[in-house]
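Contributing new records

If you add data, match the layout below exactly. Sequence lines come first and carry their own label; structure lines follow with theirs. Keep one chain per record. Anything else will be rejected by the validation script.
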Amino acid sequence: MGKDIRSFWSEDPISALRVTSGFRLATLDTGSTPGFKGSKKDSAAAGTQAAGVLSHLQEMLFANSTCGDNRKLLLVLQAMDTAGKGGIVRHVVGAVDPQGISHFAFKAPTKAELRHDFLWRIRKQVPAAGMIGVFDRSHYEDVLIARVHELAPAAEITKRYDQINTFEQELVDDDTVVIKIMLQISSAEQKDRLGERLSRPDKYWKYHPVDVDERMHWPAYQDAFQIALERTSTAAAPWFVVPADHKWYARLAVQHLLIDELKGMVLTWPEASFDIEEEKLRLSTT
């Protein structure tokens, strides 16, 4: 990352956030800010600078696709309700040119979708060349909510982990960088955020009674997340778990991950496909 952006970080948080062998979700400090040495006040300046870098890189990615470059990026966001997925989409992804973004929020499958395998509807939304695709919830719902509520036989859910790994490897083989992020908040923080929605008329629209129903299954969801992280964090498509009790930190961390992956593509501006001097001359005569 650029010098100015780096100055806000005491260390690169990527290694701390990446899920590796032995990772335990239950031991994560959801109020921590791995690698960031500043405060919430500092996060505003850090976020503004990072947004400029991210926008620049995204534009280069999109520009190269107009010349046949097949590369693209898929950001997968998973979390319990109120963890901040919407804020990531609005404040992080929303800072770049919208023509280079494809966003899809997966809801409960329709009857038509249920007639196909669980990845059928997912494949239809993968990003095209040059795009940053965002999945707000994703194919992981089929091993999370489906596991907690027993919406499919246990043997079927077990098969899905390998199917997910195969699917994500196919994406990587097709020049897609896959970034999978779980935003992890504490049960107490979720309770506070739901309470805020109930106390503010401008937040009523974000509250759904089912949120409390799902909250009653908190331990089961944590177990389901742990299994999914263990079974599907691969070298090709690793998981990153971001402590999200501080929304400002979660947004900075996701910015950092996106910038790191885009920088890893070693993007450059595409060369002109025409004679520049000739076009300058033609233009001067108009």
